Amino acid sequence: MPLYKIWQLPTPPKHDLVEQLSQAFQLFPLVSSILIRRGYTTVEEVEAFLSPQLSRLHDPYLMRDMKEAVCLLKRTILSNKRIVILGDYDVDGITATTMMTLFLNECGCNNTDYFIPNRFEHGYGLTQASVDVLLGMKPDLVLTVDNGITAVREVQRLHEHGIKTLITDHHLPYQDNIPAGVILNPNHPDCNYPDKKISGCGVALKLLMAMRKEFRDSQYWSSQRPEPNLKSYLDLAALGTVADVVPLVNENRLLVYHGIKVMNTQPRFGIQALAQLKNVRTITSQTLAFQFAPLLNAAGRMHEASAGVKLLLSTDLHKAAEIAKSLDQVNNERRTREAQMLQLALEQAKGLQHKSSLVVTSSEFHEGISGIVAARLMEHFYKPAFVFAVNGEFYKGSARSIPELHIKNALDQCQGYLEKYGGHAAAAGCTIHQSRFEAFTKKFEALCLEELTPSPQPLLQLDGKLEIEMIGWDLIEQLELLQPFGAINSPPIFSIPAPQQSYQIIKSTHAKWNFRRLEIMGWNLAKPFYENPPKSLAVHLGINEFRGERKIQLVVQAFQ
C-alpha cells in the first residue's frame, strides 16, 4: 500500500449544477458532485454515463486503414488462404487472440492457426524469433493482435517472404519508424480515431465489427453459416480491457459494462471455470482485475500463455476447470517467486534513494515478474522504477512510472541505447545490450532529474469526507451506478474518522472493525495499525457477500 503523505479534499462544484443533476437523476448531491468532478457536467453526459448504450460505439471505419484491412482479410478468407494470428502473452493479447480465432471459425475458415510467443524464447510480440516460427507455419497472412506497431524489420522480413501482414495494435509507435503495410492502431500518427485509449482487444473487436458488416452486405452469412453475434464476444473484450488497465471511460466503459453483463448471464465455459475456482457469484470489474486476470497473466509470465487461450476457447466445462486449476497453481508459483524477487529489489532500491529513478538488476530476477516488482517499487518509493533481468548478453526490463513522468516518451529519448522498446505513459518494457546498460541508466536518471521536481509526493485525491453514521444502503446503491470501476473511473474514496473501539485481528495479518450495519476491513494492516494507530482512514465503499449475507464493507486504502 502506497504511503500517501498528502490527502486532498475536492473543491465543491457549483451548487446549481449539483442540484440540477441531483434532481434530474434522483441522486445524492455527493454522487452528483463525483460525476461532475469526473467530467460529466450535463444531463446528456450523465445520461450516457449512467446508461451505457452499445449504439454509442464509434464507427469502425473511423480508424485509419480499416477499409484496407477489411478488404485484405475478406480476400484471404474467401480464397481459403492460410491465416496465422500472432498474439501477445498478456490478458489483452490472449483475449484478442481468442476473439479473432472464434470469429474466423464462425466465418467457416478451416486454414487458420494462432501463435502466442513465449516470453523467454521469442520475446514480446513480432520479433525475429517469432518470425522464425511463423515462417515454419507457412501463412499467407499474419494478423497481429495487441502487438506489431514497433516491428519494422520483422514486417519487412515477412513481406520479403511473400507473407502479407495485418497489424492490429494500440501501443505507441516509434517516433518516426512505422512498419509498412496495413495497420489498425488508434495511436498511429495519421489515425484520427476519436478514442485513442481503447485496448488491443478493443481494436480487434473493431475489425470484427467491420468484417461482419462487410460480409452481411455481400450476403456471405447463411443458415449454414450464421452471422456471428458479437455481443457474445463482449466478455472477452471486458476481460482484456480491464486487465490492460486502460481508462474505463468512453468506449472502454461501454465494452466492460456490457461484457460483465454477458459474464453474469451467459458465461462461456472458461469464465464459468474461473468463477467456480474463485468462488465468485457476481462478477465485477474488480473480479476481472484482481482474480481472473492474474491467473491468465501468470501463464505468460511463468510458462506458456497459450493455456489462457485454450481456457477461453474451451467447449467443455470439465476441461476448462482443469486448465483453470493449473493456471491457479502457476499463479501461486508466481507469487512465491515475486516475494523472493521483491525482497532483493527492495534491498537494491534502498541504496538508490538519493536518486530520482530506481534501476535495479540481478541475474536472479525473473523477467516474467519484472513488471509486477517494478510496480511495487514505484508504489513504495514513489519514483519511476525499472527492473531488469539478465538474459545472456542482454538486460530485459519492465518499467512502471509515476504520473509525473511519461515513461514511453522518456524511452524515446533513450532509444539510442535500446535494442527494442515499447509501452505507454505509465508502463513500458525494453531490451538493452550489457555494454550500453550503464550509459542508459545514467541517461534515464538525467531525464528524471530534469522532468521531476525534487522528492515528488503521492497525492491521494479524496471524493469527500464522511461519518460512519452517514453510510447506508441507499448511498451504496447509488455509488454502484458508477461501476464498472478501473483506471480513470476508480472507486470513490472517502476519509472517515478511525473508530475508537479496538479492531479485530484476522489471521495475524488483517484488521477488522465489525458494526451492526457494516464492517471496515484493513487488509494486511494489523501490524501497521499497531505501530502507528490511525486517526483517519481513507476507504472504498462496497458490498461484501458471504454465505448468502450481504453487508456494507469499507476497505481501507490509506490511513493517517
Question: Short description, anyone?
Answer:
With 560 residues, this protein is of the alpha/beta class. It has helices at 15-25, 29-37, 43-50, 66-78, 91-106, 128-137, 152-160, 200-217, 234-243, 250-265, 269-277, 285-302, 306-313, 317-350, 370-381, 407-412, 434-451, 473-480, 526-531, and strands at residues 6-8, 83-86, 112-115, 141-145, 164-168, 182-184, 358-362, 385-391, 394-400, 420-423, 427-433, 459-461, 464-465, 493-497, 504-506, 510-514, 518-522, 536-546, 549-559.
Descriptive report:
The chain is α/β, with parallel strands linked by helices. 43% of the residues lie in helices and 18% in strands. It has helices at residues 15-25, 29-37, 43-50, 66-78, 91-106, 128-137, 152-160, 200-217, 234-243, 250-265, 269-277, 285-302, 306-313, 317-350, 370-381, 407-412, 434-451, 473-480, 526-531, and strands at residues 6-8, 83-86, 112-115, 141-145, 164-168, 182-184, 358-362, 385-391, 394-400, 420-423, 427-433, 459-461, 464-465, 493-497, 504-506, 510-514, 518-522, 536-546, 549-559. It is globular, with a radius of gyration of 24 Å. The mean pLDDT is 95.
